Amino acid sequence: MKLRSGSEGEKGFGGRDLAVFVMALLLSFGIWLIHNLSLNYRDIVSVPVVAQCNLPGHAFRASSPALVKADCRSTGYRMIRLSRKERELPVPVTFSPSDLHPKGGDLFYVTVAGLKNAASSIFGDGVTVEAFLSDTLLFRFPYQDSRVLPVEPVSDISCSPQYVRVGDIECDPDSVTVFGDPALLKTLTSVKTETISPSGVNSKYFSSVSLQKMQGLRYSVEKVDYSFDVVRYVELVSELPVEVRGVPQGKNLIVYPSTARVVMRCRFPVSAEMKQVSVYVDYNDFRTSLQGQCVGRIDNLHDGVLSVSLEPEVFDCMEVTLW
């Protein structure tokens, strides 16, 4: 005979039923937690900040942090995150120079007005600051030497076929203030840009470029605007006789070779005056030469000539006395 505990239809509370109960309990707790964390809360929070600012003659970053205290309102999620900020590294906050007021020497202070301008940088988005409990923050920006140096563009420009860059690359601003160690500043003569390398250019070009960073230095601006002109050209090739100029009476100067190949890149359209160029050697160059060689010269070049090359560039000369 078998004995049963309880009534015939009663079932025991098994392991599967317990697991379902625990899962339901955890799910209910999760929903409750998410709901409560999504609600708005109000509390006093403290965030350490370190100020950054482009102040002439001073370091960009303050040497020590300061603590910002404020009465804030936000969701539970953000309030938990803000409560941990005080134990973390200082938050770098870039202030406008107008928000930093000189206190004397290398000390500057920020008022509540400046803190309001930087509230999102300090506390993050989605946080409403009801009131700042910190009236002013004091920061020390160590002194730094500075120099105003010209901007030197570095370029590797590729133009479309039959187009060429003319003139220099113009930068705006064309000079910047450099802050840093005095010993390093003395070694500099210019500030170089990153490589300017557009390709397929066939018209006037405008863009901006960053300045090359150097360890221990900072600039009054990080980028400069630049522009340069590009024009269409045609290439003219001529075989011209080599003239002799400045020869005294009773003398003659024989030049070898007696002709030169002239290659000119001319701005399109070509002016008829560009075809009136001449090639010559100067007798005075021959008199001062050691081996009787003279560099060829070109005369009557028009303004529309962008570049010119001469083949050969140097000519052998021999003086002959006529009487």
Question: What does this entry look like structurally?
Answer:
With 323 residues, the protein is of the alpha+beta class. It has three domains: 40-140, no CATH class; 145-232, YbbR-like domain (RNA Polymerase Alpha Subunit, Chain A, domain 2, Beta Complex); 234-321, RNA Polymerase Alpha Subunit, Chain A, domain 2 (Beta Complex). Helices cover 17% and strands 47% of the residues. The protein is built from six helices and 21 strands. The chain has helices at 15-37, 76-85, 112-117, 119-123, 182-185, 283-288; strands at residues 40-52, 66-75, 91-94, 100-104, 107-110, 128-132, 137-140, 145-155, 163-172, 175-180, 191-196, 205-210, 217-219, 223-245, 251-256, 259-267, 278-282, 293-295, 297-299, 305-311, 314-321. The strands form five sheets. Strands 9, 12, 14, 16, 17, 19 and 20 form a seven-stranded mixed sheet that branches. Strands 3-1-2-6 form a four-stranded mixed sheet. The longest helix is centred in the N-terminal third of the chain and has 23 residues, at 15-37. Mean pLDDT is 85; it is low at 1-9.
In short:
This protein is α+β, with helices and mostly antiparallel strands and 323 residues long.
Number of strands: 21
By DSSP (H or I, 4+ residues per run), the number of helices equals: 6
The Rg value, from CA coordinates, equals 39 Å
Helix content: 10-25%
Order of helices and strands: HEEHEEEHHEEEEEHEEEEEEEHEEEE
The largest sheet, given as strand count, sense and whether it forms a barrel, is: 7 strands, mixed
